[in-house]
Automatic annotation (TrEMBL):
It comes from Levilinea saccharolytica. Belongs to the prokaryotic molybdopterin-containing oxidoreductase family. This is Anaerobic dehydrogenase, typically selenocysteine-containing. Keywords: Metal-binding, Molybdenum, Oxidoreductase. Pfam families: Molybdopterin, Molydop_binding.
Length: 647
């Protein structure tokens, strides 16, 4: 409701009058704004082809009908096509490796939160679920598990709320060192004969190659706890103790956060989480997990907006969108881009490398978005249409994790001249000559009705009345059938098993077949490792402009007192945070409840650049780059090298 009533809520269409990015707009009528968009898109399509339009679609709104990603995709494919983004900022590295591990069954490799009821140990590996949730039921199940005496291990460089409230064991490891810690745990399992060899044999290929690697029989050092200790900043003895406790706890659920793959070589952390769950025979077992992304289980069947993708649509990894705009074909990207259609995201602020993102928006002929607020991204557009927010439209909600659907009624009507994205696209499609194809003659309410008819929901009236449909099975364990009988239910991989050491992976990517720890490149001028976690008060950049959220939000830079003392800095000082990509001036907050050698700046603050291009607000992506991980080209948003000085 804060967002609905906000004084800076966009209430009518805006057309740019000042330079791009200046934020200077004038009020326009819907007709004028829609005509301008239709004319600009037509111009780009006729001059350069539809692929010159870049679809910047994100998940600002999810839902069967009003999902921003689906709406923009449907619209642009009917328009004639576009250039699309693949993957996402959330779990790009994990999503890249999972099909190599599990084949297509990676879509079934998660678990329902209720299965945590029977876990003896829950390992939250870089997961801060009391603040990020990742499934509405997860925090409750975690606290239940703690109360009944389950061991809850949290591996996180800082004392998050999850560490403070749920952990029975906190392992504060150095960011980006998780793969080293995982190898050392495997070393203890193999060398102390704690690994379940029969389970490994039956369920995986390549565990033998991994064992040789871990034991140092393939030319490298043995990955012992002593080897890992200086990399992780944890005592070798504690690493060994953790490995033994993990081997003894049955079943143990390993719940990897996405943070551990949003780092250099993040791909291999998710190959190793699978290896750990296999070595300990927790893979696909009730109360265990596969070590995959927790949300990879199908939601109940429900209709959704159909999208007829055009064949041969050019695409590029999401991380590289500004490079693709700036370099086009000459840089090896699939198209020369002349227009940007952004929807449901604040890409200029949330994508890596804010300066490059601004340059990309400056470079196109035309940029448009629909927004609730004049975000940094909206400021870089030529036309901004006022969009209805999630509370202002009826829809069916599909959860992050869990076997249920939500019926979301309209809570309040859209204010001012605000329209829903669906209605906006209907009006635009009309102007572009494909109105009836886009709407199929249906109102939003008629689509929602159709989706319910197409669903497995037995009693639609009850669904609308209660707001929820719970599918019969609430305690699903991903890949349970394979786990119980791998011969009868093989995985759709070449071997029929989980492919831990994967020759296919090696052939496709040029990276080692065996998952391993790769030391990140280090620059002694930028010795501090920046973490940019989620704020507990905000969803990404939403609310950065709302005073009620801003007051509570933590937009100071956190530093360990020892690192501050070494730099002559004190609590409350104004400091300058910088690296080769950018700089920001921030207030310093000392925090002894995290390891030294890191600094923490929650992601999502809208940047406010001064005349030198330095940020006065603290947007985390001033410091990140579009280089990313390899081979996935996924974002690196933790363990980014920076330095801090008095400022
Ligand atoms: N409140 C809130 N919740 C959210 C979101 C939000 O914006 N706000 N966003 C949602 C979305 S889209 C996503 S993708 C998920 C994201 O969920 P995650 O990606 O898992 O979240 P992060 O906050 O990046 O990181 C989780 C924890 O990992 C720690 N960490 C950082 N780097 C490392 C590392 O190298 N190793 C280890 N072991 N730990 C590390 C951080 O200190 C943090 O406490 O959250 C979802 N939930
Ligand atoms: N440094 C750093 N950067 C990160 C991350 C990190 O951990 N560190 N996390 C990354 C991750 S995991 C993610 S998922 C991305 C998320 O990045 P984005 O997808 O950009 O997410 P938001 O900032 O939530 O932006 C959503 C926008 O959609 C608008 N919106 C909401 N509802 C609607 C609607 O119904 N219609 C329309 N038209 N607009 C709507 C909101 O006003 C908001 O401006 O950020 C990534 N960026
Ligand atoms: Mo995300």
């Amino acid at each position: 409701m804060e967002a609905h009533n906000a004084p800076d809520r966009l209430l009518h269409p805006l057309v740019r009058v000042g330079p791009r990015g200046s934020g200077q707009f004038r009020r326009a009528s819907w007709d004028e704004a829609l005509d301008q968009i239709a004319a600009a898109l037509t111009q780009v399509r006729s001059q350069h082809g539809p692929q010159a339009v870049l679809s910047l679609a994100s998940a600002g709104c999810t839902g069967a009908l009003h999902g921003t990603h689906g709406l923009l995709t449907r619209f642009l494919h009917l328009f004639g096509g576009c250039t699309e983004l693949t993957s996402n900022y959330s779990n790009g590295a994990a999503s890249f490796v999972l099909p190599y591990l599990y084949g297509d069954a990676w879509r079934q490799s998660g678990f329902d939160a209720a299965t945590l009821q029977v876990s003896q140990m829950i390992i939250l590996w870089g997961a801060n679920v009391l603040e990020t949730r990742q499934g509405t039921e997860v925090p409750m199940r975690l606290m239940e598990a703690k109360e009944r005496g389950a061991q809850i291990v949290v591996i996180d460089p800082r004392r998050s709320d999850t560490v403070a409230q749920a952990a029975t064991w906190w392992l504060p490891c150095r960011p980006g060192s998780d793969a080293a810690l995982m190898l050392a745990v495997l070393h203890v399992l193999f060398s102390e004969n704690l690994a379940d060899r029969a389970f490994m044999q039956a369920h995986a290929v390549g565990m033998d190659a991994l064992e040789r690697h871990v034991l140092g029989l393939d030319g490298g050092p043995a990955r012992t706890p002593e080897w890992a200790a200086p990399l992780c900043g944890l005592p070798a003895e504690e690493i060994a103790r953790f490995a033994r406790a993990y081997a003894a706890a049955k079943p143990a659920a390993l719940f990897p956060g996405y943070s551990i793959q949003r780092v250099f070589a993040g791909e291999d952390t998710y190959r190793l989480t699978a290896a750990l769950q296999i070595a300990t025979a927790n893979f696909g077992v009730l109360g265990g997990s596969t070590g995959s992304i927790n949300s990879r289980l199908p939601a109940p069947r429900v209709g959704s907006l159909p999208i007829q993708r055009r064949p041969h649509t050019p695409s590029l990894p999401i991380l590289r969108w500004p490079d693709a705009v700036l370099q086009g074909r000459s840089g090896g990207y699939p198209s020369d881009l002349h227009a940007i259609y952004a929807l449901g995201g604040n890409f200029v602020n949330q994508g890596a490398d804010v300066h490059k993102n601004c340059a990309a928006f400056a470079a196109v002929d035309f940029a448009v978005t629909h927004e609730m607020f004049l975000t940094p991204t909206a400021r870089w557009c030529d036309v901004v249409l006022p969009a209805a927010g999630p509370l202002e439209k009826e829809d069916i909600g599909i959860p992050w994790l869990g076997n249920y659907l939500l019926y979301k009624s309209q809570i309040v009507p859209p204010p001012g001249e605000v329209r829903t994205d669906y209605d906006i696209f209907c009006a635009l499609a009309e102007r572009l000559g494909f109105g009836s194809e886009f709407s199929q003659g249906r109102s939003a309410a008629e689509w929602v009705e159709l989706f319910i008819q197409e669903s497995e929901i037995p009693d639609p009236q009850d669904f609308r009345r209660t707001g929820i449909y719970l599918a019969p099975n609430q305690e699903r364990t991903g890949l349970a059938e394979f786990s119980a009988n791998p011969q009868r239910h093989p995985l759709p991989t070449p071997s029929g098993k989980v492919e831990i050491a994967s020759p296919r992976y090696a052939a496709d990517t040029g990276f080692p077949a065996v998952p391993t720890y790769q030391p990140p490149p280090a620059d002694p001028r930028f010795p501090l490792l920046l973490l940019t976690p989620k704020s507990r008060y905000r969803t990404h950049s939403q609310g950065s402009n709302l005073p009620a959220v801003r007051q509570r939000a933590d937009d100071a830079l956190e530093m360990h007192p020892a690192d501050a003392a070494a730099r002559g800095l004190r609590e409350g000082d104004r400091v300058r945070l910088f690296n080769p990509n950018g700089a920001a001036r921030l207030r310093l907050r000392l925090n002894a409840e995290m390891i030294s050698g890191i600094v923490v700046l929650p992601e999502g603050i809208w940047f406010e650049l001064d005349e030198n291009g330095e940020d006065l607000a603290g947007s985390a992506n001033l410091f990140t780059s579009t280089q990313g991980t390899a081979p996935a080209a996924a974002c690196i948003m933790h363990a980014v090298g920076v330095e801090v000085a008095a400022g």
